[in-house]
Amino acid sequence: MNRELPVADRRRRFLGKTCLVTGGSRGLGLAAAQAFAREGARVVIIARDPDQLKIAAELIGDGTVTVAADLSSVAGIKAAISEVAAQVDRVDAAYINAGHAGMKRLDDIDEATWDRVFDTNVKGSFFLMQALRPLLAPGGAVVFCGSAAGRRASAGTARTEPARPRWST
Questions:
Q1: Pairing of strands 18-22, 65-68
Q2: How far apart are alpha carbons 109 and 102 in whole angstroms?
Q3: What's the chain's average pLDDT?
Q4: What is the pLDDT of residues 133-142, one digit of tens each?
Q5: For residue range 47-68, what is the model confidence (pLDDT) as tens digits?
Q6: What is the rounded CA–CA span in Å between residue 112 and residue 115?
């Protein structure tokens, strides 16, 4: 017996769901937000640049919730999640995509670059998950986006992308 849903039904698998995407104003985050919207989700995007958030919201569609925030600090995370909670009652799926690559030649990485990468990719991801937990719907899912760049370095460069935590809740 084939239990797969017809193609038309699969395309609406997030109907009635709320999906949050960090780093959702461009690149992979924007593509994920658009995919969630195509499948019927109410989409919440968080990113640093308010102007880019406006552009992204138009590309994603009506009902997109935008939150401008820097997720590299606990204060920024708490403010962002407070704003999200004021606009939605739950989050059914979260795609944690915000990150800072910090890709430079090994000798050119300074402490400020390292701190920005670590604060966004590690500390930010951890404390975002912590702040988001009360909003997660029962059975909800959280996906942390990583980078294949952490598997292979280029000569003379330092890759900081592997600085991404992994949790199971």
A1: unpaired
A2: 8
A3: 86
A4: 999 999 999 9
A5: 999 999 999 999 999 999 999 9
A6: 5
User: Residue 158 is inside which H or E element, if any?
Assistant: strand 157-158
Cα distance between residue 150 and residue 168, in whole Å: 21
The set of residues, in sequence order, having a beta carbon less than 8 Å from that of 34 and lying 6+ positions away, is: 59, 60
Coil, strand, or helix at residue 124?
A: helix
Fold classified for 15-106+119-145: Rossmann fold (3.40.50)
CB 101 within 8 A of CB 161: yes
3-state SS string for 52-99: HHHHHHHHHCCCCEEEECCCCCHHHHHHHHHHHHHHCCCEEEEEECCC
pTM for this prediction: 0.83
Neighbour-count burial for 93-114, b at 16+ CB within 10 Å, e otherwise: bbbbbbbbebbeeeeebeeebe
Tell me which amino acid residue 44 is.
Answer: V
